[in-house]
Amino acid sequence: MSQELTGNDKRKASCKAVGGEKKKTGHKREDHFAERWGDVSSAITYKAEADKTITDETLLKRLNETLGPLTSGRTSLKSGNNLQFTLGVIPEITEADDKVCAIAQQSLWEKYLAKSHSDNPADILCYRSKTDWTFFKMSDVISFIVKNAKWRALSSGRLKGDFVNKTSKGFSQYLTYEYRQTHKSHFLGANGNKGQPFIELLKENLKFHVETD
Predict the structure, then answer these.
(1) Taking 80 as the threshold, does the pLDDT of residue 110 lie above it?
(2) Closest to 163 in 3D by CA, of 178, 173, 177
């Protein structure tokens, strides 16, 4: 006789199922990317480093012309309405007395978004929509976040990053730092259906290049 799941167990099972589906989607995205512009024989990485490397000379030429000089074709791939930059321990924030100041440091974003401490740091950020691939220079993205995000601490312990935009209010929250009980880890990224809006904000302010399927 099977035991009925409690509400909390149901949430955990649901999160696990969603996480598994996201991994499958991510693997398909990376395979598709490699087929178009990279090395199809390269293995999917599970490390905190660039997801794929562009080897296609035509695309690299276009990106260098549009985005500015790139040091490599190493790329971080993102998609969907919830962008996870990192999920794990972030001691630079958790151990800081002033967390708002800590999250605004460029070195933190270079480490956790560009994966600068890895053997394969990402020079490019690529966002995958249903039909398009939008490319940004990673250093431009990081500079934009560091310069323009206005961080505020909530009583819950979350940190929210606001950016000036064209809404009637004049600004909106796009980025979040929070502790996720399900994973026992800290999340940094654009969640709550803020992923695609954040990409649109980047497109309004930074150089970008689009490739269509």
Answers:
(1) yes
(2) 173
Q: Are 159 and 101 in contact (CB under 8 A)?
A: no
Give the integer Cα–Cα distance in Å for 87 and 85.
7
Q: What angle do CA 170, 173, 178 make, to 5 degrees?
A: 165
Q: What is the mean pLDDT of residues 139-165?
A: 97
As given in the structure block, the two tokens for residue 144 are: 């934009």
> What is the pairing mode between strands 74-79 and 171-180?
unpaired
Please give the pLDDT value at position 11. 44
pTM for this model (two decimals): 0.86
Q: Which residues have a Cβ under 8 Å from the Cβ of 37 and sit 6 or more positions away?
A: 54, 55, 56, 59, 73
